[in-house]
Design goal:
Radius of gyration of chain A: 22 Å
Shape of chain B: globular
Helix content of chain B: 25-40%
Number of helices of chain A: 9
Distance between the termini of chain A: 42 Å
Strand order of the largest sheet of chain A: 12-15-14-13-16-17
CATH superfamily of the largest domain in chain A: HUPs
CATH class of the largest domain in chain A: Alpha Beta
Shape of chain A: globular
CATH architecture of the largest domain in chain B: 3-Layer(aba) Sandwich
Strand order of the largest sheet of chain B: 2-8-7-6-5-3-4
Strand content of chain A: 25-35%
Largest sheet of chain B: 7 strands, mixed
Number of strands of chain A: 17
CATH topology of the largest domain in chain B: Aspartate Aminotransferase, domain 2
Order of helices and strands of chain A: HHEHEHEHHEEEHEHHEEEEEEEEEE
Number of helices of chain B: 14
CATH topology of the largest domain in chain A: Rossmann fold
Oligomer: heterodimer
Chain lengths: ~400, ~400
């Protein structure tokens, strides 16, 4: 991996170091272009550094597909993979004078992201499609496509940093300069091979700085709004999406209606299906109570949804599996880390230790609120991502 | 970078003679062909001269030629012009989307539609047309040459069936014009579509042959242009260019040009297949236009192959270009029974002749060098390729 190392090693800002080395060794880099501010700016920055670029946009989902079905809006609202975004990405590539291609990975996206997303909800968990997409599409399929067409590296507009650590001989994933835009939570599944072939040129910049660059490069997209929602779910209403998707597949929503019970075991009400709930949810329980009630846990077998007070939401431990390690090859002894249990979560101090072949148990110093099965637990040591896994349970 | 163009079925450059013929009509020789004055008469004469050239290409009367904006308009006018709710349309399943999507639209509006299957050969069986006829059948639409695999359809046989049954016959000859001789009488068709830019004419030009006595309802209303069959001021330079291109196309198909092109195409096919395992030709057993070959390669993604080749300077298509620019499994290959995985891993080479993009022996050498190397690289990186050639015993690429 030497040729990669000298591009991004010792980088405090990926692009800055790439700039230093570009003159001596320009790379052929595939830029994942979404048509948004971040990835467009990445393309402009890398081009300014003298690299040979190939713009790629992944067509992952057809926003028209479920339009008008089962309570979905007739009008197409989502932005991901929309005609407008592809148009923007293409225009940016044209301005930069780089070749640009739209690559179709809709089947793989449906198989590896959409179907698991629906299955997770139906099983009473709360999935993170962005991580699945990163693992299966952006850093796997796209990297493969990039290599197939002759690119050495893939660059994306993620806010994260990666660098090679001489001491450990491992590629590190680190939190970016802009803590508010940190996307490392969604990137914990990256392998060493993937990290070695990826550039995150925005890792050293804040979002306002990136917008400023976009304006300076005159890319025509500097004022586009950030995308926030799950890209394939217009309006963010995942319940309607699941209904519409199952309807399209000719499947009926499995009956997962059941009881709402309190921690004491008393039946407080009934619900229409477990996929409508997520741990920590307060709204839509339909149970009258003097104090606020929250979803504490969801049992996919009995369809029982347990509700209780905010205090009951606190967990002292969690179990995670399907682990991926980044800064270490494996966890051989207990380790002090801080853990994010969801994207917008201030990392909480904890000790992690292996409790199974592919299982880690984390014990928090202070109880943590709403540990949600299906979400990721990502372990950090300061800015460095140690690794992570998928939350099986919290207690 | 050396750039070789092998995508003539997508578009061709203007022939220099076509450009020269068009040029004065943009500026000094302007005029509206409907005007009564000198300028109008001059424009009218140019339009009618072009009409004669197109008529000679199609072997019809000049009055049977209506100028259009291209193949899509011609197909739309032919279908929507003769079909009313309650009528029955028979079309092949490998038609261009200009026919297929128009047919689907008409179906939504009450027209009964039968799509004919094609076998692994990529050609329609004329007997299938006969069997699909119903009392309310009004129109049969089967293309003359397929855009993706180049197969020539048995249009003359279909023409005798439709004449016998007294139903209209439209053929989309967009990919045939300039590649094979076209004789509307020999075909026995009532409507025939051509597009200028497929044979060195300008983009945005085309013509629909409308047999005398056939009166399709117009798509566009307004002035009385084109004998009230297509309203709108004539695209004068475009029509002049189309006429010039038609004249040259007629000379080309009457000469040995197609045979020379076939030699190049056959060598390209043979030499690539000699260097690549688990690959083959779609429709190779059927009569084809001489410039086209569509090759399949197992164990790779055609999309990445097209991109990799473009980055090396070789321009061609995988399957058919889709409106979004992303590749869908080709409906033509799917209709032939090709599995989606393999339908995606194909390359369409379509060679040009008679323009700045004319294919040469060196171009074929270039492709013969590049394609096997690119295929090998993609297979090497493919997660599904094991590297052990498995010989197919069934018709190549076609599921039973």
């Amino acid at each position: 991996m030497d040729y990669v190392t000298d591009t991004v090693s010792n980088s405090t800002a990926g692009a800055a170091s790439a700039r230093r080395s570009a003159a001596a060794s320009p790379r052929t880099i595939a830029v994942a272009m979404s048509g948004g501010v971040d990835s467009s700016t990445v393309a402009a920055m890398l081009q300014a550094e003298g690299h040979t670029l190939i713009g790629l946009t992944m067509q992952l989902w057809n926003q028209r597909r479920l339009a008008g079905r089962e309570g979905m809006p007739e009008e197409v609202q989502g932005r991901c993979c929309s005609v407008d975004d592809v148009y923007d990405a293409r225009r940016v590539a044209e301005r930069l004078g780089i070749p640009y291609y739209l690559v179709n990975h809709q089947e793989r996206f449906e198989r590896d992201v959409v179907k698991p997303f629906v299955a997770e909800y139906l099983a009473g968990r709360t999935p993170i499609p962005c991580s699945l997409c990163n693992n299966h599409l952006k850093f796997d399929q796209l990297l493969l496509t990039a290599r197939q067409i002759g690119a050495e590296l893939v660059a994306t507009g993620h806010y994260a940093r990666n660098e090679y650590d001489e001491a450990s001989g491992r590629w590190l994933l680190k939190r970016p300069a802009d803590a508010g835009k940190d996307q490392t939570y969604f990137l914990f599944g990256l392998t060493q091979e993937q990290l070695a072939h990826t550039l995150f040129p925005l890792g050293g910049y804040t979002k306002p700085e990136v917008r400023e660059q976009a304006r300076a490069y005159d890319l025509g997209i500097a004022t586009k709004p950030d995308s926030q929602e799950i890209c394939f779910i217009p309006g963010g209403d995942y319940k309607r999406f699941i209904d519409a998707y199952l309807d399209e597949q000719g499947e009926t929503m499995p009956d997962s209606s059941g009881e709402l019970v309190t921690t004491a075991g008393t039946v407080a009400g009934h619900h229409e299906g477990i996929h409508q709930f997520t741990v920590g949810q307060r709204k839509g329980l339909g149970v009258a109570s003097p104090s606020p009630l929250y979803v504490l846990s969801i049992d996919p077998e009995s369809h029982r949804v347990t509700i209780g007070s905010e205090n009951d939401l606190l967990s002292r431990t969690l179990i995670a599996s399907q682990l991926n390690w980044i800064s270490v090859a494996d966890l051989t002894e207990p380790m002090r880390v801080s853990i994010k249990v969801r994207h917008r979560h201030e990392p909480a101090l904890a000790t992690i230790e292996k409790t199974g072949e592919d299982e880690v148990t984390a014990t928090f110093d202070e109880p943590v609120r709403a540990v949600t099965p299906g979400q990721a637990a990502v372990f950090y040591q300061e800015d460095v991502v140690v690794g992570g896994g998928w939350i099986v349970s919290g207690r | 970078m050396k750039r070789v163009y092998m995508d003539a079925n997508a578009t061709t450059p203007l022939a220099p003679e076509v450009f020269a013929a068009m040029r004065p009509w943009f500026t000094e020789q302007f005029g509206n062909a409907s005007s009564i004055h000198f300028h109008g008469q001059r424009a009218r004469a140019a339009v009618e001269r072009a009409r004669e050239h197109v008529a000679r290409l199609l072997h019809c009367r000049p009055a049977e030629v209506v100028f259009t904006s291209g193949g899509t308009e011609g197909d739309n006018l032919a279908l929507t012009g003769v079909l009313k709710p309650g009528d029955h349309l028979i079309a092949s399943s490998i038609e261009h989307h200009a026919v297929l999507h128009t047919a689907e639209r008409l179906r939504d509006r009450g027209v009964e539609v039968t799509f004919l299957p094609v076998g692994a050969s990529g050609t329609v069986d004329p007997e299938d047309v006969r069997r699909a006829l119903k009392p309310n059948t009004q129109l049969v639409s089967v293309m003359m040459a397929n855009n993706e695999i180049g197969t020539l359809q048995p249009v003359a046989e279909i023409g005798s069936i439709t004449q016998e049954a007294d139903v209209y016959f439209h053929t989309d000859a967009v990919q045939a014009a300039g590649k094979v001789p076209i004789d509307v009488k020999a075909i026995g068709c009532d409507l025939l579509t051509i597009s200028g830019h497929k044979f060195h004419g300008p983009q945005g030009t085309g013509a629909l042959y409308i047999r005398r006595g056939t009166h399709p309802e117009p798509l566009l209303f307004g002035g009385p242009q084109e004998r009230q069959r297509r309203a709108g001021t004539e695209n004068l330079p475009g029509i002049v260019g189309l006429g010039q291109a038609a004249e040259m196309a007629q000379a080309f198909v009457a000469g040995d040009g197609p045979a020379r092109l076939a030699d190049l195409r056959n060598r390209l096919e043979k030499e690539i297949l000699a260097r690549v395992d688990e690959a083959g030709v779609y429709g190779g057993e059927s009569p084809r236009v001489s410039n086209t070959t569509n090759l399949w390669f197992d164990h790779l993604e055609g999309e990445a192959l097209v991109i990799a080749l473009d980055l090396k300077g070789l321009a061609l298509s995988g399957g058919s270009a889709c409106m979004s620019g992303a590749t869908e499994p080709s409906h033509v290959l799917t209709a032939m029974g090709v599995l989606p995985e393999r339908a995606r891993a194909s390359l369409r080479f379509s060679l040009d002749s008679g323009s700045d993009a004319s294919a040469t022996d060196e171009d074929v050498d270039f492709a013969v060098e590049l394609v096997p190397a690119a295929v090998a690289r993609l297979r090497e990186l493919s997660p599904v390729y094991t590297g052990s050639p498995r010989r197919e015993t069934t018709a190549a690429g076609v599921s039973r």
